[in-house]
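Hi,

Apologies if this is the wrong queue. I'm a grad student, and the batch job for Flp pilus assembly complex ATPase component TadA from Massilia violaceinigra produced an output file that my downstream script rejects. I'm not sure whether the problem is my script or the file. Here is the sequence I used:
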Amino acid sequence: MKPFISIGGGAHARADVAPPRSAAAPQVLSRSGAFEGSAEERKLLCFLSDGRLLIAHGQQSNPHVLSYRARLQKMAREFTVSVVDIETIAALYNNGAGEQGGRRHEHSMMQVTAKELLNHACRERASDIHIRVRRCSTETYFRIHNDLVRIGSQTTEYGERLLATLYGAMTSVSDSSYKPTERQDASIADRDKLPPQLYGVRIATAPTSEGTLMVLRLLYNDAGDAVDLRPLGFSEAHAERLQRLKEQPTGMNIISGPTGSGKSTTLQRVLSGAIVQAEYKLHVLTVEDPVEYPIDGAVQTSVTNAGSEEERSRLFSAAISNAMRLDPDTIMIGEIRDKASAQSALRASMTGHQVWTTVHANSAIAIVDRLLDLGLPMNMVADHTVVTGLISQRLVKLLCPHCKVKLVDAPDALAAPMLARVRQATGGAFDQVCLAGPGCADCRQNGTAGRSVVAEVITPDARFFEFIRNGAKSQALEYWRRELGGQTLLEHTLAKVAAGLVDPRMAEKIVGHLALEAPRVERRLNVVLEAPRVERRLNVVGSVHAG
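Support response: The file is valid. Your script probably expects a header line. Output copied below for reference.
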């Protein structure tokens, strides 16, 4: 049996160390008799005849545990609380039950542990869970506001069982049986296996030099009926351009950004808004791998259970081709990842459909390079009647409005080169720049309060693509900014820094140095801060979760 950790108990609990072991093994009193626990209680605790109440790690405040402790106190039965692994509790109940029955019960206990891990992540509003199984330990991390936060450690055996349970017993869509030495993908979609805050969980595993890594992407279902893009952080001008793209009957609109930049959330709101504005008379069909977020009024299809990457590519392309025969008005393709899916998406946009999709690219204009890299012809990619929208986005942390501090009050907080960059880039708005504060009760001592989109939206015309076809990318960018009113990712980020919404240090981690386009940005920022309508726009930002 693993060593116990003794902690203080209730009114009748002894706070001393665990009593010495007796010659005979203690009996399990919570299995039956006067101290019998309910089925739910026995999953989380075990009361022994030597006075120890074993409670699963992290479950001390569970309602079932608190109820059982209250019953012991009411019965005036003294006990000493010891925190142990949940496997220890399962092993005590399974003693003598036979190896096969014990394994089944242990598997069930691990499902309880896995669900509690998901509940814990939801309470912390984590976007991902990282479980790293190593030679001598298992480490668990939550990604909260883009930072990895260490949650705790366990034994290697514990981690191996947890990963096997998550993949083998909880997933509804997976490649095949769990294989720790292979890279695998899966998803959890059964609502009875998920906390109420989640719509689903995406799972990816990979073997490492020390063991196995599993990453779980949490897909929250709190978007509700929201269709407005501005609370996500998009500017008024962005929202207007995206509205025009929604109203175009044909053409391909592509959203780019790294993993976890909010692309799926943006797509969800764009399509939900189009459906609502069309009074649910729009046939929106999605092809996803797998389905991530629910879109009310859309028909969502999933491409899953492929045995290999080649098979998945073939099935995905076949699903897109099939979607075009199902009389859609709008097709949403989860992600363009290879030449076959890119060709299918392009063909859909050329045959009278509106297409929305995502791709991994560093900027809006870099989407063109990515499509060419996938093997699409330049004459089709650089056609404004075929490719109608190029969008790129990132997520930046928003400062807690209650504890943020002004940069002018703490200039030494920034290194001299960065301070000079910020002063040059923000110009007259320098006095409004703020830094993350020490943390407070409102932000749970983080100094930040959610994340906000920074984006660039290109609605190309014939002249823009003429520059692209001629290889004059810099001229295309300048034309977009000067003639089409474009705003780069850097400029949008600077506007939020200048409004005191984003810490410049956090901004540079996302978009790089803030002074790359200082002269022009300074002029733009002065306009932003002087125009009442735009100033209000800058304050309309909010939180968004990764997809």
